[in-house]
Amino acid sequence: MGLLLIIHLIAAACVLAYRRRLGRAAWLIALAGPLAALVWAVLRARDIIDGDPYIQVIEWVPNLDLSLRFQVDGYGLLFLIVVAFAAVPIFLFARRYFSTEPRVATFAATMTLFGGAMIGLVASDHLLSVFVFWELTTITSYLLIGFDDHKASARSAALHAAIVTGAGGLAMLGGFVLLAEVSGSYLISEIVAAPPGASPSVTVAWLLILVGAATKSAQVPFHAWLPGAMAAPTPASAFLHSATMVKAGIFLVGRLAPAAVASTDWWQPTIIVIGFATMALGGWRALRQYDLKLLLAYGTVSQLGFIFLLTGAGTPKLLFGGLALLAAHALFKAALFLLVGAIDHEAETRDIRRLSGLRNSMPGVFWTALAAAISMAAVPLTVGFAAKEAAFDALVDYSTPAILIAAAASILTVAYTGRFLIGAFGRHEPGQEPAGSSASTPRNWMLWGPLLLTAVAGVLGVFPGLLFPLVDAAVAAVTGISKAGKLVLWPGWVAALAWSSASLAIGLLLAWQPTPLRTAADALGRLTSRLPTAEGTFRKAIPALLTFADRSSGVLQNGSLPAYLSIILAVAIAAPTLAIVADMPDLSGPARGTLLEWAVGLLIAGFAISLVFVRRRFAVVILLGGVGYGVAGLYAVLGGPDLSLTQLLVETLAIALFAFALRHLPATFAKPITARLPRLVVALSVGVFIFVGGLIANSVRSGSTVSEIYLAESLPEAAGGNVVNVILVDFRAFDTLGEITVLVAAALGVAGLIVPILRGRRAAR
Hints:
There is one protein chain. The chain has helices at 2-17, 19-22, 26-30, 32-49, 74-97, 102-123, 127-145, 152-183, 188-193, 200-216, 225-228, 234-243, 247-263, 267-286, 292-312, 316-347, 358-361, 363-376, 383-398, 400-425, 445-462, 468-479, 495-512, 515-527, 534-556, 561-582, 595-610, 617-637, 641-662, 677-699, 706-718, 723-731, 733-764; strands at 54-61, 66-72. By secondary structure, the chain is mainly α. Among the domains are: 267-513, no CATH class; 565-734, Four Helix Bundle (Hemerythrin (Met), subunit A). A two-stranded antiparallel sheet has the order 1-2. It is elongated, with a radius of gyration of 34 Å.
C-alpha cells in the first residue's frame, strides 16, 4: 500500500517536472497511479473477499506510537476499487478535454495527488493518518475547484469548499483524539471491536466526528459547497464530486457506525434525519435548476443523503443497500458529469433553456446519457435498480415511515432525471434558435470514458451477482455478518418492488407533465423566500467572521507587552484551574514551615503587593530588589546557601541595570494606579494558582521526590559531591545548555537594539 502512494507521488512529481514538454501525455503518466491501485486491488481481491485483509505497518513516530497502519479489508477494498476505477475513464476524458497549456499538467498532477490521498484515506486504520489523508483531499480539492483562478466564481467556490470541509476536518480531529483517549486506542479496528461506553466525552467525540463526515459528504446544513464546486472543470467534478471525495464522509460513518451505535442512543436517529433532509432538499433543488451541471450536483446531494443514512444507520442490511447504491452511483453519475462536459464543450452552454435537438446532433452522447440516466432513475435491468431494490428491501424491514420518505425522495430522483434528459436532448422553444441545434458530433475521445462507465454499469445491471461478493465482503468486514442483503436482476413480487415501481411511475408522470410540480415549487418558493439559505448564510457569515477577526485582533494584538503577558498568563491558568475545581484533592494535611520561613514569605508578599501602589520608578526598583533579596533569604533559611548566594548576585546586578536604565526614563509612571489593578488581579491569580498547585502536587505525591533521586545518584553516577553542580552539568545538562542559548539570544537581541542607537548618537555628535 505504501508503494501505491509512492507511485502516485512519483507520477505527480514527473508531471510537474516535465509539464512544458509532456502536453497531453501528462495524463498518461498521471494514470500510472490509479492503474497501479486498480491492478493491486484486482490481484488481492480474492484473498480479501475470503476474509484475509491486507495489513501493512510503516513506523512514523514510534515514540508517540504513531504509525501509518494500512488495513484493506472488504470494506476498504470496495472504496479502493471505486476510487481507482473511476479515475481511469476520467483521466482519459481529461486528456482531450483540456488544451496543451502547461497549467493543465499541474491540474493532472493535482488530480493524481488527490487520488493518492483518497486511496490512503480508505486504506488507513489509524485515526491520525485518516486525518492526514483527509486534509490532503481538502487541499487538493481546493486547488482543483479553483483551477480557473481568473474567474471570481471559481475562487469563491474553492474557498467555500475549503472552509466548510476544513472546519469539519478540524472538528473531526477533535473527535478522533477524544475517542482515542477514551477507548485507549487510535486504531479503528480496535475501537470497532471494543467500543467505548457511554459518557459525555464519548458523546462529544461522536458528535464532532459526525460533523466532519457531514461536511465532507455535503449533508444538510453543510451541502451548499457541493453545487458551488461545479465551477471546477468537468473532470474534477466527475472525479471529486460524484465518485470519490464526497464518498469520504460516507466511508467514515459506515466504518464507525457499529461502534457509534453501541456507544450512543442518538447516533442512528440523527443519521436518519440528516439523510432524509438531504435527500428531500437536494432532490427538490435539482428540479428547479436550468444548468445541467447544477442539476446533477443537487441530484448528487440528494443521493448522497440516501447513501449517508443507509451506511451510517449501523444495521447490516441497510449498510448492504447503501454500499451497493454507492458503487452504482459512482458509475452512472461520473458518466453523466463527463457527458455534460462533452455537451458544454461542443454546444458551449449547459442551460436547458437554450439546448435543443441534441438527440440528433449528438446521438452518441444521447444514447450514453440515456443509459446512465435510467440507471440513476432505477429502471429495471440497471445496476441502479438492483442497488435501490436492496436499499428499499432494507428500509421496508426497518420502518414504514422510512420507506415512505425514501419513496418520496425517489419520486424526485426520477423527476429530475426526466428533466435532465428532456432539457438536454428534447426539442422546445421553436421560436428561438437554440444553441444546441448547431452543435457538432463530439469526437470519439469524448465518449470513451462515459462509455466505459456505462458499459460496466450495464453489465452489473444484467449480472448484479458480479457486484454481490464485493458488497457482501464490505458489509461482513464492518458488521461481521455476511449475506445481509441481495443483489438480483428481479427481486420477485415483494414489497420493495411495489414501492420502487410506484415511485418510478409517479416520477415519470411528473417528468412528462411537470406543470403540477412547477406550481407546487413556485408556491413553496414564495413561502420560503424569506427563510435563510445555506448559500446566503455562508456569504453573510464570512464577512462577519472577517470583521470579528479584525476587531478581536485589534484588541488582543495591540502592541502592549503587559497586555500580551496578561493574556498568556490568563490562558495558562484557566484550563488547569477548571480541572482543579472539578476534581479538588484533599488538602487537609498538617501545615508546614517554620515561623521564620512564614515571616520571610510574608515579607516577600508585602514587597510584591506594594509595587502596585507606588508611582515613582526608583521606588519600584527598590521594592523589586526587596522581593529578590527576600527570595535569597528564603533560600538560605531552607538550607540552600549556594542558591541564596546566586540569587543575591543576580538581584544586585539586576538592580544596577535598572538604575542605569532609570536615567533615560521619566521619574514617575504616566498611568494612574487604578490602571494597574487588572494586572494585579492577573498576578494574584497566577500566584494563587501556583501556590495551590504546589499544595496539590505535594499532597498527591506517591513516589520518591526528584531531590531524593538526585542526592542518591549524585556521587555514584556523576562522581560529584556537590549535588547542585551535578544537576547543572550532568543531570540537566541540556536544560543548562538551553538556558545559556536563551541568554545568548537575548543578549544578541539587546545588542541589535542598542548598537544602532549608539551609532546614531555618535553620528549626531
